[in-house]
């Protein structure tokens, strides 16, 4: 078990950060809109992603929501220039059979 944990830690350091933010919230949640980055008015970022991203000079608003999910990392919802450093477009090598090459040989 310790060996698997060590391999997981190694994979996490080698793997570039990618994907969509998993943060969700319920009624009366707070989210951030950026009129320069969003693709429509339903697209938002959680506070953590918003403050890590660059929105200098952008038109932004803090809103209360009825529930939702952070759109950081989703290029269909948000301009990639407004993604935070933790959520970026998925590199091709992580999206397909080539991703198996990232695993240690004994786990393939």
TrEMBL record:
Pathway where it operates: Protein modification; protein ubiquitination
Keywords, in A-Z order: Metal-binding, Transferase, Ubl conjugation pathway, Zinc, Zinc-finger
Zinc finger boundaries on the chain: UBR-type: 19-89
GO CC terms in record: cytoplasm; ubiquitin ligase complex
GO terms classed as biological process: protein ubiquitination; ubiquitin-dependent protein catabolic process via the N-end rule pathway
Domain of life assignment: Eukaryota
CDD domains xref list: UBR-box_UBR3 (cd19673)
Record-listed E.C. numbers: 2.3.2.27
One annotated GO molecular function: zinc ion binding
Keyword Transferase found: yes
Pfam families, per database record: zf-UBR
Every UBR-type domain range: 19-89
PROSITE patterns recorded: ZF_UBR
InterPro entries: UBR1-like, Znf_UBR
Reaction catalyzed: S-ubiquitinyl-[E2 ubiquitin-conjugating enzyme]-L-cysteine + [acceptor protein]-L-lysine = [E2 ubiquitin-conjugating enzyme]-L-cysteine + N(6)-ubiquitinyl-[acceptor protein]-L-lysine
Catalytic class of the enzyme: transferase
Annotated family: Belongs to the E3 ubiquitin-protein ligase UBR1-like family.
Function (record text): Ubiquitin ligase protein which is a component of the N-end rule pathway. Recognizes and binds to proteins bearing specific N-terminal residues that are destabilizing according to the N-end rule, leading to their ubiquitination and subsequent degradation.
PANTHER family on file: E3 UBIQUITIN-PROTEIN LIGASE UBR1, UBIQUITIN LIGASE E3 ALPHA-RELATED
Protein name: E3 ubiquitin-protein ligase
């Amino acid at each position: 078990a310790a060996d698997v944990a060590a391999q997981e830690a190694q994979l996490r350091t080698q793997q570039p950060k990618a994907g969509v933010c998993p943060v969700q919230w319920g009624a009366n949640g707070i989210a951030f809109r950026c009129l320069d980055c969003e693709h429509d008015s339903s697209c938002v970022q959680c506070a953590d992603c918003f403050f890590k991203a660059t929105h200098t000079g952008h038109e932004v608003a803090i809103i209360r929501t009825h529930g939702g999910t952070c759109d950081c990392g989703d290029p269909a919802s948000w301009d990639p220039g407004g993604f935070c450093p933790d959520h970026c477009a998925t590199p091709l090598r992580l999206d397909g059979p080539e991703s198996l090459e990232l695993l240690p040989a004994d786990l393939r």
